[in-house]
């Protein structure tokens, strides 16, 4: 899972931002993955699912698009407001 070092900061940053906004959960994450990262979509999804367990992103739906780059970009994410 060489994706771990790329996905951990994504989960951390989204979690922190969503919690500051009063979210109880993140329902969807839109992400762009650079083709030059060598990351495969199935592997990314699997690693994301493992690393997001027990976090506010645990059940988030991933929308993934690939682009010509060597980085990962979070495009946006949707939250469910807490009460």
Describe it for me?
- With 83 residues, the protein is of the alpha+beta class.
- The protein has a single domain (4-81), classed as hypothetical protein PF0899 fold, CATH 3.30.2320.50.
- It has helices at residues 4-20, 41-52, and strands spanning 23-34, 61-67, 72-81.
- A three-stranded mixed sheet has the order 2-1-3.
- Helix 1 crosses helix 2 (41-52).
- The longest helix has 17 residues, at 4-20.
- It starts with a helix and ends with a strand.
Distance between the termini: 36 Å
Structure class: alpha+beta
Q: Looking across the biggest beta sheet, what order are the strands in?
A: 2-1-3
| Estimated share of beta-strand residues | 25-35%
User: How much helix, percentage-wise, in residues?
Assistant: 25-40%
Number of helical stretches of at least 4 residues: 2
Backbone shape? elongated
Please outline the helices and strands:
Blueprint: H1 4-20, E1 23-34, H2 41-52, E2 61-67, E3 72-81
């Amino acid at each position: 899972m060489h994706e771990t070092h790329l996905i951990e900061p994504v989960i951390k940053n989204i979690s922190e931002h969503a919690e500051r906004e009063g979210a109880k959960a993140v329902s969807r994450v839109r992400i762009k993955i650079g083709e030059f990262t060598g990351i495969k979509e199935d592997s990314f999804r699997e690693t994301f699912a493992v690393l997001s367990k027990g976090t506010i992103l645990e059940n988030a739906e991933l929308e993934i698009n690939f682009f010509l780059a060597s980085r990962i970009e979070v495009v946006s994410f949707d939250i469910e407001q807490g009460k």
